[in-house]
Request: fold
Amino acid sequence: MDIPLTAGQICTRTVVHADRGMMLDEAARLMRTHHVGSLVVVEERSPKERIVVGMLTDRDIATGVVALDRDAHAFRVGDIMSTDVVTVREQDSVLDVLAVMRHRKVRRLPVTGGRGELIGLVALDDVLALVAEQMHALAAAVGAAQHHEASATVGA
Amino acid sequence: MNIASLCTRDVIGIRADAPLHEAATRMCDEHVGALVVVTADEPPQVVGMLTDRDLALDVLGRTPLSTELRAGDIAKYPPVAVEGSASLQEAIAAMEKAGVRRLLVVEADGGVIGLVSADDLVCALAEELQGLARALRRNIQQEKTQRAVFSGPGGTRPVFPSYGTAAMQ
Reply:
């Protein structure tokens, strides 16, 4: 049995990413095309090894550029991304992920591998999906126990 | 538990003719991710909903860029609403059907009560579940103190072919 209980197992592996120099309007288009609320900003060490250097959310764009009524063309991702990014390692448990989200007040965490390279993104929604799935499994176990009891007592 | 009892009553609004930077500033100042878009009438009427995501993606993600946009130009119409008397399940179904994570909560006559988000529903469900877990644990404790361990032989199991009416208090 392989029950997913680590960050590496429940995270999304195809992460939409950008680099610091990307223009902000292109970043917004990327979020729009891929239906995501955040981009992981990376520095590419090699085509297969990307290091996390920041995060950019749709809200960052709204409050950092639209609110100031500034020309979006004057901004690059690196200008408004948040740089104090919290990451989790792929072997960290789901409970660790939840604890980090709670303490750092974030709902998305990049997941990194052994050399610090980006391998995925875990969102609060992923944890919720896992919990819901396990609740369903719990309900099935309750149902199975009832069924077992009913058939075991017949003719007793 | 109905939606009126768990929704946020502080609904922040913005006039449809307000410039976008004003909408963004208000979201920032009020620490909210969504505003209701209202008419200039008195009392104002809620005609739509505007989120931080709309501001980011529909302003910058749009080509060609337009700087003359107003809140009303990029808001979503009409707002997806549920009645305050709706159950948790009905609210979840409404979110699922419309593909949104926030709902406007209204009276039967359309009066606005508040806003409810998917996050609010998660919290309410978690509380209910925790309450149930507590009830089950208490039930075991109570049974330990009140009921002696039964060790005698089993009696006949009373089975009634047809049930009568129950004695009601």
The radius of gyration of chain B is 25 Å. Chain B has a mean pLDDT of 88. The beta strands of chain B are 13-15, 34-38, 46-51, 81-83, 102-106, 112-117. DSSP finds five helices and six strands in chain B.
